[in-house]
Amino acid sequence: MDALLTPFLEATLRTATPLAFAALGELVTERSGVINLGLEGSIVAGCLGALVVAGAAGPAAGFLGGAAAGVLLASLLALFVITLRTDQIIAGTAVTMLGLGLTGTLYRVLYGVGGAGLSTPTVAPYTIPLLADIPVLGPALFRQTAPTYALYVALPLIAWWLHRTHGGLALRATGERAESAVAAGVPVARMRWAAILFGGAMGGLGGATLVLAQVGSFNEGMSAGRGFIAIAIVVLGRWSAWGTAAASLVFGGAFALQYLFQSTGLDVPYSLFLAFPYVLTLALLALLRGRSAAPAGLAQG
Amino acid sequence: MDALLALWDGAFGSSYAFWSATLVRATPLLFVGLAVAVAFRAGVLNIGAEGQLLVGAIVASSIALHNAGAPRAVVIVAMIVGGAAGGAAWAGIAEWLRRRFGVLEVISTIMLNFVALALLSWVVRGPLQEPSGIYPQSAAFPEASHWPFLIPGQRLHLGFLLGAALALGAWFLLARSAAGFRVRVVGAGARAAVSAGGVDAQRTITTVFLLSGACAGLAGASEVGGVTWALYEGLSPGYGYTAIAVALLARLDPRWVVLSAVFFGALDAGAAAMQRDAGVPSVVGQVVVAAVVLLVLASGAVRDRIPRARAAAPEALG
Question: Which domains are assigned to chain A?
Answer without folding.
Answer: 2-115+127-287 (1.10.3470)
